[in-house]
């Protein structure tokens, strides 16, 4: 295990790397805003036909949409974070070099992805969120304490998001097929995070299942924390439990993978 | 044009064979694609598990919108989806290798990384469309029957034009692939919901400025004998071919302008 | 020139680059990547085209192949204006980008050739004949059924060269054809190019950083710098133009003060018992060796040929220029 000072530097590197793509960031903001608009109108229609669906009123449903668009890139809901690079390194066999580095692999990638996430929250998240709040009715809290609680929920959401993608990425050691893994990540991410529909609006037992899965920790729980729809402690425990469990699973998988490193090609 | 189709066929054929080199992976990704594109429809089903109508449209009616939009988008994406990664090819310089070949560049770019797995979207859209056509209450006439395939083709041309125009834009801004996504993927998502759901200005823009409405909203309104929100004349549904031709011409012009600018600036 | 195959007359290429100068401020600046470039290459010539990074080499190649349109001037290849008749010219030229394969990564090598066969509409008989000849000369027989991703860099380069020649182009452009190759692969590629030029009179223009490529292949060298042609002639002449020097490395029995060598030779470096003497490349080494050997206790000695890259570098510094980065 290397010096602890390595990781902040790695995180800063992750931040800077994404910060250089100004045009891509602007384009992403545009896309998130467009998708946000489309979803807001459909949700308004949905909540008009069924007021109070999932315990949200119309304003809360709208806020949920913009929060989803704001966190979309940060949480890499449909993939596109560090795991793309990690899987490519596994595919090409370069991963063998990483294993000899005097740093912890999981922490190294976590730091890297955290840097990316912070940039994308600021660079891609803030503008659609503010635009949404200005143009449509919204349900934002006035108390600073709630925002602070929300930030902590975001941090935990990010840990869960990282842990899920780390597990998916490491599967490339066995599957050697990045495309399929990326697709699985996308499908589960979009559906189970509540990007298409808030999880509390899912019908019956399907709703109960998706709200118990780790993806619920990504968007649904922070949204509920922000809008005061959940007990704080319960929310944190749910997120933290999944984060710990998945990160631990990642470590197990990592050591299993290390034992069977196959350097592809030559 | 003939040269372009010929080149397209040859290059797409090579890519299909490349994918078949990993057959199991191909089957997996087709399934994955079916699931991924099916998610949009699952979201609609989930909504309708809570309500009977959305913006006044019933589930079979919305399914008709979805089927028309997803099928024509699927065709366009299969044929032109690769144009969306043009920016990357320009950035890494591999775009130049296409310019030294004796074949039209657009055909080469469109056929590049031709992904048969994208068939998934069209198949899934067509399945929903098939169900919707049976489940909706349409007063079928010969003209209405013919309108369905004509609409699908026109929709594919309109979406294809968006892909090409978006590619042309990437000559100027190589990192802006996401802007194209907003119009293409955003467009098909928008069209999956009834026009009555959206703000009037948005509907106006999507009808008169960026005429996506002719992919499904306008023809579906005719099929279902529903008034279109903007009070368009009933014959508007038959303007789709004209709209498609104009879109294709504009996209072609944008592509040529983009290519000319690339060849004079080299970036 | 009697049969000018490539003709450039006052060709210019100006790029507009935008540079960030502040958080949002951008500065627009015109960069003249190629400036008033004029030269001709005769049919069947083999010419080396060299210069530092950003000098305008690849911009020139891109204009010659029809990728880029010149900003000004007249450019013809085989009588064709490349930027106007890109596809017509494509049938008559072959291009190999050293760092970028055009072969199909996941498919056997032969599949890429079949695509060339159809894309370039090569008559069947001629395709078979050319393929057979190229496979033999480039030693590709064993590799035809191997997926390209499994080929070594050298094998892939040979595969790329064959792909560029299946349609019998009259001119072949090679951009860094030996970059990253091992010595044996380099030799194979060079031998092939020499033979191609001799047997089929294919005009060859190659850019390279490896000066042995030029020494072994090209009777003519063009040096470009800051978008201008600064030298055009035989390789030997380039040594003189840059007043190049060879180096005599002398190992003495023990450490001694710098050797008193007869002018213009002089000691340029001393390291323990080893000394380096520079002398004009145009002079014979024999006289100098004899004089040194007569007066000093020698253990060993060797003559180092001039490093042409260093020669070119000196040409630049004498012109007082500094290399600019090339927009690509």
Description:
The complex is a heterotrimer of chains A (266), B (267) and C (328). Chain A has 266 residues and is mainly alpha-helical. Chain A contains twelve helices and no strands. Chain A has one domain. In chain A, helix 4 runs parallel beside helix 7, helix 6 (105-135) packs across helix 7 and helix 7 packs parallel to helix 12. The two termini of chain A are 28 Å apart. The mean pLDDT of chain A is 91. With 267 residues, chain B is mostly helical. Chain B has one domain (2-265). Chain B has helices at residues 2-20, 23-48, 59-80, 86-92, 95-99, 105-111, 119-135, 142-172, 177-191, 200-209, 217-223, 240-265. In chain B, helix 3 crosses helix 8. Chain B is globular and about 55 Å long. The model of chain B has no long low-confidence stretch (mean pLDDT 92). Chain C is of the alpha/beta class and 328 residues long. Chain C contains ten helices and 13 strands. In chain C, the strands form three sheets. Chain C has a six-stranded mixed β-sheet, sandwiched between helices. In chain C, strands 11-12-10-13 form a four-stranded antiparallel β-sheet, with helices on one face. A three-stranded antiparallel β-sheet of chain C has the order 2-1-4. In chain C, helix 5 packs parallel to helix 6. Chain C is globular, with a radius of gyration of 24 Å. The relative contact order of chain C is 0.14. Chains in contact: A-B, B-C. Chains A and B meet through helix 2 and helix 9 of A and helix 2 and helix 9 of B.
The radius of gyration of chain C is 24 Å
Tell me the major beta sheet of chain A. Answer: none
Structural class estimated from helices and strands of chain A: mainly alpha
User: Which oligomeric form is depicted?
Assistant: heterotrimer
Largest sheet of chain C: 6 strands, mixed
Write down the overall geometry of chain A: globular
Biggest interface: chains and residue counts?
A-B, 35 and 40 residues
CATH superfamily of the largest domain in chain C: P-loop containing nucleotide triphosphate hydrolases
């Amino acid at each position: 295990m290397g010096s602890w000072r390595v990781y902040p530097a790695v995180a800063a590197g992750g931040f800077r790397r994404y910060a250089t793509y100004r045009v891509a960031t602007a384009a992403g903001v545009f896309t998130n805003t467009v998708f946000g608009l489309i979803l807001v109108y459909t949700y308004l229609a949905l909540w008009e036909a069924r007021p109070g669906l999932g315990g949200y009123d119309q304003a809360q449903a709208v806020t949920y949409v913009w929060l989803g668009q704001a966190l979309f890139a940060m949480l890499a809901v449909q993939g596109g974070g560090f795991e793309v690079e990690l899987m490519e390194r596994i595919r090409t066999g370069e991963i063998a070099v990483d294993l000899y580095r005097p740093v912890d692999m999981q922490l190294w990638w976590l730091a890297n992805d955290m840097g990316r996430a912070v940039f994308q929250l600021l660079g891609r998240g803030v503008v659609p969120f503010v635009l949404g709040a200005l143009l449509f009715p919204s349900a934002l809290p006035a108390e600073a304490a709630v925002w602070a609680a929300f930030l902590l929920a975001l941090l935990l959401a990010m840990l869960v998001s990282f842990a899920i993608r780390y597990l998916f990425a490491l599967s490339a050691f066995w599957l050697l097929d990045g495309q399929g893994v990326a697709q699985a990540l996308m499908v589960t991410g979009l559906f189970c995070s509540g990007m298409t529909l808030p999880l509390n609006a899912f019908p019956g037992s399907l709703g109960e299942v998706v709200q118990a899965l780790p993806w619920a920790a990504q968007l649904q729980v922070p949204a509920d924390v922000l809008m005061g729809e959940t007990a704080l402690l319960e929310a944190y425990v749910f997120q933290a439990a999944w984060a710990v469990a998945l990160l631990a699973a990642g470590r197990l998988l990592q050591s299993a993978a290390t034992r069977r490193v196959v350097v592809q090609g030559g | 044009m003939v040269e372009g189709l010929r080149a397209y066929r040859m290059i797409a054929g090579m890519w299909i064979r490349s994918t078949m080199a990993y057959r199991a992976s191909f089957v997996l990704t087709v399934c994955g694609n079916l699931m991924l594109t099916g998610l949009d429809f699952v979201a609609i089903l989930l909504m309708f598990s809570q309500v009977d109508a959305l913006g006044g449209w019933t589930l079979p009616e919305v399914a008709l919108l979805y089927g028309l939009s997803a099928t024509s988008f699927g065709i366009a994406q299969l044929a032109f989806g690769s144009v969306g990664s043009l920016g990357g090819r320009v950035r890494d310089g591999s775009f130049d290798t296409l310019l030294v070949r004796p074949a039209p560049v657009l055909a080469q770019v469109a056929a590049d990384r031709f992904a048969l797995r994208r068939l998934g979207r069209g198949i899934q859209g067509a399945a929903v469309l098939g169900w919707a056509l049976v489940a909706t209450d349409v007063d079928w006439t010969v003209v209405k029957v013919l309108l369905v395939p004509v609409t699908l083709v026109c929709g594919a041309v309109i979406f294809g034009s968006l892909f090409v125009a978006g590619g042309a834009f990437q000559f100027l801004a190589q990192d802006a692939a996401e802007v194209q996504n907003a119009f293409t993927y955003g467009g098909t998502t928008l069209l999956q919901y009834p026009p009555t759901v959206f703000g009037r200005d948005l509907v106006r823009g999507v009808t008169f400025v960026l005429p996506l409405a002719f992919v499904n909203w306008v023809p579906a309104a005719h099929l279902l004998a529903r008034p279109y929100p903007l009070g368009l004349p009933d014959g508007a549904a038959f303007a789709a071919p004209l709209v498609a031709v104009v879109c294709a011409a504009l996209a072609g012009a944008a592509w040529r302008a983009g290519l000319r600018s690339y060849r004079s600036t080299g970036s | 020139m009697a049969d000018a195959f490539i003709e450039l007359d006052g060709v210019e290429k100006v790029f507009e680059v935008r540079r960030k100068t502040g958080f949002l401020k951008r500065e627009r600046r015109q960069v003249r990547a190629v400036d008033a470039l004029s030269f001709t290459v005769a049919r069947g010539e083999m010419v080396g085209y060299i210069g530092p990074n950003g000098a305008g080499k690849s911009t020139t190649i891109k204009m010659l192949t029809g990728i880029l349109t010149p900003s000004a001037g007249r450019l013809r290849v085989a009588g064709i204006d490349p930027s106007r008749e890109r596809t017509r010219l494509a049938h008559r030229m072959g291009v190999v980008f050293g760092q970028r394969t055009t072969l199909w990564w996941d498919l056997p090598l032969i599949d890429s050739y079949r695509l060339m066969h159809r894309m370039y509409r090569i008559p069947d008989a001629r395709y078979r004949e050319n393929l057979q000849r190229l496979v033999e000369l480039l030693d590709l027989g064993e590799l035809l059924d191997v997926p390209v991703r499994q080929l070594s860099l050298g094998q892939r380069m040979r595969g790329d060269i064959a792909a560029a020649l299946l349609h019998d182009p009259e001119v072949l452009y090679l951009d860094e054809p030996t970059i990253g190759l091992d010595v044996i692969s380099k030799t194979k590629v060079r031998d092939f190019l020499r033979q191609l030029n001799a047997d089929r009179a294919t005009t060859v223009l190659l850019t390279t950083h490896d000066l042995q490529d030029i020494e072994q292949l090209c009777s003519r060298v063009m040096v470009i710098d800051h978008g201008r042609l600064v030298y055009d002639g035989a390789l030997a002449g380039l040594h003189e133009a840059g007043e190049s020097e060879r180096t005599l490395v002398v190992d003495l029995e023990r450490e001694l003060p710098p050797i008193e060598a007869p002018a213009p030779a002089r000691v340029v470096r001393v390291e323990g018992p080893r000394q380096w003497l520079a002398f004009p490349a145009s002079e014979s080494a024999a006289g100098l060796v004899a004089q040194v050997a007569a007066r000093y206790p020698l253990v060993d000695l060797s003559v180092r040929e001039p490093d042409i890259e260093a020669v070119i570098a000196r040409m630049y510094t004498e012109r007082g220029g500094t290399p600019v980065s090339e927009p690509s």
